Amino acid sequence: MQPNAKTTKVDSEEHIEKAKAVLDLETKALKELSDGLSGPAGEAFSQAIQAIHAMKTVPGLAGRLIIAGIGKSGHIARKIAATMASTGTPAYFVHPGEASHGDLGMITGNDIVLMLSNSGENAELSDLIHYTRRYGITLIAITSNPESTLATHADIILQLPKLPEACPNGLAPTTSTTMMIALGDAIAVVLLQQSGLTPEQFKAFHPGGKLGQQLQSVADLMHPFDSLPRVTIDAKMGEAIVELTAKNLGSVIIMDGDKLAGIITDGDLKHHMAPDLLDKSVKDIMSTTPKTISVKALGVEAMNVMTKQPGQYLTSLIVMDGDKLAGMIRLQDCLQAGLA
Prior knowledge:
The chain is α/β, with parallel strands linked by helices. It has helices at residues 5-36, 40-57, 72-86, 96-99, 126-134, 149-153, 175-195, 199-205, 209-214, 218-221, 237-247, 266-271, 282-285, 299-307, 331-336, and strands at residues 65-69, 91-93, 112-116, 138-143, 156-159, 223-224, 230-232, 251-256, 259-265, 292-294, 316-321, 324-330.
């Protein structure tokens, strides 16, 4: 039986309108969450940041952020824990049910517990709440109910705007979990910025996959100084061509003592091809303003320099460590490393 085209179109339009209504409601919730940080909620947020940052940095504490939740809030808690860990804040997810059966032993007095519950009244959270109170462990609550058991016992309350769920029955966690995950991202990123996490340190937490590839540094990909084709500024082109051919990097670097003087590429040879080329001085052929990049830069930065130069297309860059020649990075190296 073939579907009725008119009915299908009507259904499609209805589906889209319902989906837009969900997204509009959740967008409104995020806007209210953001606006709320300009008031008392912002003071609580700052207190949470300061407490977690101090836990990480004060000598002798060496604490971890323990994140807990049950049901859909538990799934969000797992994601927040993963985001925290990958951005420089040691964090673990602890299931409240398992905590009641021995996993409380994973939590030390130096840790901070971040607990998620929209209602703040989940019975499964009671043992974990009691444990933090008994041992003086800082408890941060994310909840929409400031009168709840969780909020009453928390040291810091990150209150969510009390808004209806996107579910038509008002039951399935949707709007509330969207706000939780966004607030978790905000905490993680602010902590990252306060800690001054560098791209190199971030890479250490993400060695695999596309993200790890994108964070490879120029130092990881370059051909080091000792492997570079080099001749002195007094050399003849015959010597330079022999060196260029032997090292097979597509160019030869001209040195004036220990200083970079210039570069001769394969393209330069083609432009200056003549019967007397071998007898010419490298000074007659070389470019004295080769494109360079810092050894501290990322590989993707080097690739952008090579491929986005107006009116030209570079195949390599000289790598500098301050004013010293450190190596050479080629476009081919970047492509082979998966940076494209």
